[in-house]
Design the sequence.
């Protein structure tokens, strides 16, 4: 990804699974080490919406964003940045239904002074993730 990319999800469940799931398991120790943050942008960001089927005409497919070839995903992100996009929106790879969406915002490396609020990861979110993704949970 270009320079300082900030990875986000449109829903708390998406952020949780992309950050916390390791080998089908989640531990309370890992949960306690993180916080759930909500970012408030000062204005709109023009993102490439790769959930739109129209990108197939440009030669992209689901593996372009959800595959294991990280170098190819990073190259795609760089090309999108060079084309003037401020970020990219895609279906999260751990969401087998395709319902959960990730967003990566491109920019300078380091803190950007965005307004955000954070909180401990709610127990209800952990329980919802364990149920939906059939995870093993270690207290």
Sequence:
């Amino acid at each position: 990804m270009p320079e300082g990319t900030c990875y986000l999800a449109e829903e708390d469940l998406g952020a949780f699974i992309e950050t916390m799931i390791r080998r089908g398991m989640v531990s309370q120790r890992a949960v306690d080490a993180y916080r759930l943050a909500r970012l408030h942008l000062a204005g709109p960001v023009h993102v490439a919406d790769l959930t739109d089927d129209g990108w197939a005409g440009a030669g992209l497919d689901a593996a372009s964003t959800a595959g294991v070839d990280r170098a190819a995903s990073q190259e795609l992100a760089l090309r999108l940045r060079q084309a003037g996009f401020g970020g990219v929106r895609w279906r999260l790879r751990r969401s087998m239904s395709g319902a959960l969406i990730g967003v990566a915002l491109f920019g300078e490396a380091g803190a950007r002074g965005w307004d955000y609020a954070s909180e401990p990861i709610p127990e209800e979110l952990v329980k919802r993730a364990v149920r939906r993704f059939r995870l093993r949970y270690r207290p």
Remarks:
- The first strand starts at residue 6 and ends at 9.
